[in-house]
Amino acid sequence: MCLGSMTNSLKTYQGQCHCGAVQFEFSAPETVDVTDCNCSLCRMTGYEHVFVEEADLRFLSGRDQLVSYKFGTKTADHLFCGTCGIKPLYRPRSHPGAWSVNARCVDGLNVARRIGFDGQNWDESIGGLHKSLET
């Protein structure tokens, strides 16, 4: 299930990179929370996070097309399509064992709320993000 979303019936969403080489689907509530982060990478790429539990995401194609990029603590595994360069999802530092799906790569998301996260001050802000996603 989608982390931090309102409890309601589940829907299967499909997402992909720009060229379609990487395709995936995930189960989440009909309304989801989207987290906007201001860290350097999210700010520069316009990435919008939808956190999904690991078991609820399935690759349909292209997992082997993903190229990894790690920086800073090298904990988060940022995954870009090796063909078109889009980052459709990644393994976040903030939610070990989960996926962060790029809301911009998923059609038909019904956003319940937008949560701001001060990724420029990650260590000081992560507790607040977790609390926001619990409510």
TrEMBL record:
**Would the keyword Electron transport be found if you checked this record's keyword annotation?**
no
| PROSITE patterns (alphabetical) | CENP_V_GFA
In this record, what's one Pfam family? Answer: GFA
Gene3D superfamilies membership: 2.170.150.70
Record keywords, A-Z: Metal-binding, Zinc
CENP-V/GFA domain spans which residues?
13-123
As for family, the record states: Belongs to the Gfa family.
Under what name is this protein listed? Answer: Aldehyde-activating protein
